[in-house]
Each structure stands twice: as structure tokens, then as C-alpha cells.
Amino acid sequence: MGTVTTARGVYPVPIFMPVGTRGAVRTLDGADLESVGADIVLANAYHLMLRPGPAVVARLGGLHRFMGWERHLLTDSGGFQIHSLSPEVCDEGVTFTSVYDGSRLRCTPESVVEVQVTLGADVQMALDVCTTLPAADDVVRQGVERTLAWAQRARRHFDRLDEKPEGQALFGIVQGGIDPDLRRESAERTVALGFDGYGVGGLSVGEPRSAMLEALAATVPHLPADKPRYLMGVGDPVGIIEAVALGVDQFDCVAPTRMARHGSVLTSTGRLNLRNAIHADGDGPLDPTCNCITCRRWSRGYLRHLLGVGEPIAWRLLTIHNLTFMSRLMADARSAIAWGRLEALRAEIRARWPDRTGGPSGG
Ligand SMILES: [Zn+2]
User: Fold this and answer.
1) What digits encode the pLDDT tens for the residues 264-318?
2) Which H or E element spans position 67?
3) Average pLDDT, the chain
4) The predicted structure's pLDDT at residue 202
């Protein structure tokens, strides 16, 4: 599709969304995010609902103004985060314990729509049920049915609300574990409800890469090609290029930012572990082909020193580099699509990044 048009403007696809769970991409500010070429950032409605609360964000001008970020924002509904808290799930909604103060909280598809309307991002996600894999067939089926019922309730509630941020989009989420038939069915029935875009959830949760790609291949052809198709929680180069080849437009993952804080650097020749002693005297940049502010100015040896002594600036500079790498990867993918050479790029990336089962997962 090339681009996605919203009330705010246009963003190119395929695209990677840095994760700013609590309203900030860890260690970066808005100017940093612009410098790494981010066009859309993900924030998490679940966390912002608990701290500082949607009403505070609204009083301070909505999420864009709150974060000092004028480009696109997507809020995730928190289905994935809540799922990791061993919640009680029933047809009505989900009850879980707050990670902040231990209180018991209830979310419904309707309440999550309202929280995200109040936050005011450009895209909001419907609440889904993310099933732990491996799971018995009937458990996966129940997750699909509940996700569909919740998607319908979210759609209706969203449509009934009078006061919404101008042009806010609502995305539905496809579930179905790694069962291709269930994935196809979930895709078709979610599309029948009519959303502005579609998330593919519940993948990259520990299953083998081949199973993830099989489930994805069973899903994407049943999603409309003129609406954004978003693979949730996948952000490693091989996972991204394989998914792009299947038609995925949007990605998010905490891995590139989390890895940066641990000294794991993404480069044009593969992964580099900056903690390795070999880099102590490294006079060159992290990646000679990278044009980020970190690579333009500082040596591997200096950055390794900062990391070793725990200077917080190390996390920022490495995060800037890794997110710049992600922006370049996506720009390369877009240009490869435009020039009909996606297969060649896919082969290059697969050769450069030895596959690891599952790859870095989301959350
Ligand atoms: Zn760089």
C-alpha cells in the first residue's frame, strides 16, 4: 500500500514503531525520536490508564502534547500486558492486579475503547485475548471467540461515542494461535466487523519461527490489502523481512531498545556485542555505514566504556543507533518493494542474521 493516510498526515509502510510503553521510548525524548526517523510511536493504554490515568493526559492536552510528539501515535489496548499478569478472563472482560499498587482492576472492551479515546492517539487497538502457546485446541478456539465478541463490542462502542479525537482509527486484532485454519477464520470474521486496520496478535510468543510464518501466511491474504496490517511484537530483522514478504505493513517490538541498553548493537553486518573486550580499543563507529548521531561522533571504545561504568548516556546513544538501524531497515524494505527486489533483500538479511527460534518477542 506504500503509505497510510490519517487525519494527522501520512506515514510510509512497511514501518517499525518504537515502543514507548509509559509515554516515553526509554532514554529518548521527542527530538531524539525525530532524529532516528520515527514516524509513529506505540504507547500502551494499559500502563497509561494506571499511571498517570487518562484524565490527567487529557487535561494536559492529550497524548501527543503530553509526550511532546507531533507525529503519529498508536495505543495498544494492553491485552498482551494484562495477559502476562495471570488475569481472570470471562465473557464480560478481564480482571487483573495492578503492577503499580496491587489493586484489582477490571477492563472491558468498552472501557478500553474509552481510555484510548481519552488518550487521543491516532490509532487505537481493540481489546483482545492473547492465548499462551502451546495451548489445547479448545483454549485457542475460546480465545478466538472471545476476541471476536470483544472486537464487535469495541466497534459498536467506538461508533456510538460522540466525542472522539478527529479521525482516530480503530484496529481489530486477529488471534488463533498457530492453527492456520483458525487464523484464517479469525481474520475473515474480524474483517467482517469492519476495522480501519488489523493487528495480528498472539505470535512471536515462543513458537518456532516456521510456525509463526505459517500462521501469518494463513492470515494476511484474508486481510484487506488497502488497510494497514500490523504484526504485533515482532522486531528482529529476519522476522520483519519474512513478514514484509507476506504483506505486513506495521511492526512494533521492545527488542531493539531493550537490546541497546544491554550493549547489543544492530549493524549492517549483523549483531555486535559492545561488552565484548575486542571493542575496548575500537576507534571506529558502531557501524561505518550508519549516519546516526552516535556513529557520527563517538567510537565503539568510548561507548563501551560508558556502558561498562553505567553512564546513562550510553543507553540513550545505543538506543538512538538501534532505532536508526530499524528506520533504515524499513526504508530498505520500502525501496526494495518499489524496485521489485524484495526477494534479493530478503536473501541478504537472512544471510546476515542467523535465525534464532522465535526471535526476540514483544510485550
Ligand atoms: Zn549509528
Assistant:
1) 999 999 999 999 999 999 999 999 999 999 999 999 999 999 999 999 999 999 9
2) helix 63-67
3) 95
4) 95
pLDDT in tens, 210-255: 999 999 999 999 999 999 999 999 999 999 999 999 999 999 999 9
Q: How far apart are the first and last CA of the chain?
A: 27
Q: Going by C-beta distance under 8 Å and a sequence separation of 6 or more, which residues neighbour residue 66?
A: 23, 57, 60
275 touches 261 (CB < 8 A) = no
Q: Assess whether 76 carries a catalytic annotation.
A: yes
Percent of the chain with pLDDT over 70: 98
Question: Which residue among the candidates 39, 179, 249, 252 is catalytic per the annotation?
Answer: 252
Low pLDDT (below 50) residues in the chain: 357-363
Q: What are phi and psi of 271, to 5 degrees?
A: -80, 140
**Nearest residue to 111 via CA among 168, 62, 50:** 50
pLDDT of the residue at 83 = 84
Note residues around ion ligand 1 (Cβ under 5 angstroms). Answer: 290, 292, 294-295, 321
Element (H, E) at 173: strand 169-174
Q: Is-catalytic flag, 91?
A: no
Q: What is the DSSP letter of 189?
A: H
CA distance linking residue 247 with residue 213, whole number of Å: 12
Active-site option among 32, 39, 76, 287: 76
CA distances 199 to 168, 186, 285, 297, 300, Å, are 16, 11, 37, 38, 38
Domains, the chain, ordered by start: 3-253 (3.20.20.105), 259-352 (no CATH)
Helices and strands: H and E segment counts in the chain: 15, 15
pTM greater than 0.90: yes
- Residue holding cell 488471534? 175
Element housing 259 (H / E)? helix 255-261
CA diameter of the chain: 62
d(C-alpha 301, C-alpha 280), whole Å = 5
- How far apart are alpha carbons 143 and 222 in whole angstroms? 19
The span from the CA of 233 to the CA of 16, in Å, is: 10
